[in-house]
Write a structure and sequence with these properties.
Structural class: alpha+beta
Number of helices: 3
CATH superfamily of the largest domain: Sortase
Order of helices and strands: HHEEHEEEEEE
Helix content: 25-40%
Number of strands: 8
CATH architecture of the largest domain: Beta Barrel
Strand content: 25-35%
Distance between the termini: 90 Å
Shape: elongated
Largest sheet: 8 strands, mixed, barrel
């Protein structure tokens, strides 16, 4: 007979406690969310099915550039030729000529290693004087003696790219342009006295045959 009053008494006590607990839980939850938000620790809305933000064109270009492989070194076993490769970001002839004083130079708007449909264009001095104090003036000495099938090795980002010579020719840069968009993967070597002059130069065109990790 005493069960009914005892149950009623418990209901009277539990009711207010329940509401107090809910209010406290709400306050704690709200405070936690505000704290996480202030420290930028809330989960990314894109993970819950929201539409991901669209990249701008400049962001897309930067993303592509981060995956491009720039040449760092060139070797031609037949000629015992080894040279570093500079990668300037300007087409200013004065700056490009300065880079030629240290080795080969990749023309800024030309392709990158392993990129399909692109032509990597490298310029280098050639000099046949008996005495040359700066060996960079002889960077591309002898490339006109290369023949079909000779190998050219270009290293970049820890990989070696092997190219085989297709053609060797002498061309006047005033009348003959070098295509930057090609079929496959190409490499073009060009002898250069100065980027500011138009003159006869030796041009070697090669195609990519394989790539592999460079020896550490």
């Amino acid at each position: 007979m005493s069960a009914t009053p005892h149950t009623a008494q418990n209901k009277g006590i539990i009711g207010p406690r329940k509401w107090i607990f809910l209010v406290l839980a709400f306050v704690v939850f709200g405070g936690t969310v505000m704290a996480l938000s202030s420290f930028d620790l809330l989960p990314d809305s894109s993970l819950s099915g929201a539409t991901a933000p669209t990249l701008t064109e400049s962001q897309k270009q930067a993303e592509v550039a981060s995956t491009q492989v720039l040449p760092e070194k060139i070797e031609i076993p037949k000629l015992k030729l080894v040279a570093t490769v500079a990668n300037p970001t300007t087409t200013n002839a004065t700056i490009l000529d300065k880079d030629l004083l240290y080795g080969a130079v990749r023309y800024p708007s030309s392709g990158t290693l392993g990129a399909a449909g692109q032509n990597v264009v490298l310029f280098g001095h050639s000099s046949y004087l008996p005495v040359v104090h700066n060996q960079a003036y002889k960077t591309f000495d002898g490339i006109q003696t290369l023949a079909h099938g000779d190998q050219i090795l270009v290293t970049g980002a820890g990989k070696t790219y092997v190219y085989e010579v297709e053609t060797v020719a002498q061309a006047n840069t005033q009348n003959a342009g070098i295509p930057l968009t090609v079929d496959g993967n190409k490499l073009t070597l060009v002898t250069c006295d100065s980027f500011a002059t138009k003159s006869d130069r030796y041009v070697v065109i090669a195609h990519l045959v394989e790539s592999y990790p460079s020896a550490s």
